[in-house]
Amino acid sequence: MASPSIQRRSSSSASHSQWSYDVFLSFRGKDTRRSFTDHLYSALIRNNIRTFRDDEELRRGEEIAPELLKAIEESRIAIIVFSKTYAHSKWCLETLVKIMKCKEERGQMVIPIFYHVDPSELRNPTGTYGEAFTHHEENADEERKEKIRKWKTALRQAGNLAGYGATNR
């Protein structure tokens, strides 16, 4: 079995800006890895857009690795694919908090894609997002409750951004 890795692709034309990556791609692998996200990632790479995609399928727990934090900070744009079970992943939620912090502090552009979810589900967790938070809040101590508050704030901020929708219609 391969060791946990982070997938990176670079175009041959290196940029001399403050950004190491054009795009940081955030998604819940379980929902979109073999479909929408793979197609999006391939299109970005085909167009020589330096894209960082975390191999989250191999990750466990909720602490974000320093290399991942650095990649978020060094990306000019973050594209977040909000899918049905995105909020079930503590890892995704922690990543989202970091992205929203970089938006505020570093001017990072954030582009949400609402993949079979409505932005209102993020602003006021309902549906599968409400279910996820019910689960996260079960037996939560004060430290966990503070994390949950940060997750909800980041989701609300992201839900208020203009983004793109992807549905089965």
From TrEMBL:
Any one Pfam family match given in the protein's UniProt record, by short name: TIR
Catalytic activity: NAD(+) + H2O = ADP-D-ribose + nicotinamide + H(+)
GO cellular component: cytoplasm; nucleus
Cross-referenced PROSITE patterns: TIR
Molecular function terms, GO-annotated: NAD+ nucleosidase activity, cyclic ADP-ribose generating
Highest taxon in the source lineage: Eukaryota
Keyword NAD in record: yes
Domain TIR: 19-169
EC number: 3.2.2.6
Subcellular location: Cytoplasm; Nucleus
Major enzyme class: hydrolase
Gene Ontology process terms (BP): defense response to fungus; positive regulation of programmed cell death; signal transduction
Keywords, comma-separated and alphabetical: Cytoplasm, Hydrolase, NAD, Nucleus
InterPro entries to which the protein is assigned, alphabetical: TIR_dom, Toll_tir_struct_dom_sf
Predominant subcellular localization, coarse grouping: cytoplasm
Similarity remark: Belongs to the disease resistance TIR-NB-LRR family.
PANTHER family found in the cross-reference section: TIR DOMAIN-CONTAINING PROTEIN, TMV RESISTANCE PROTEIN N-LIKE
UniProt protein name: ADP-ribosyl cyclase/cyclic ADP-ribose hydrolase
Organism: Vitis rotundifolia (Muscadine grape)
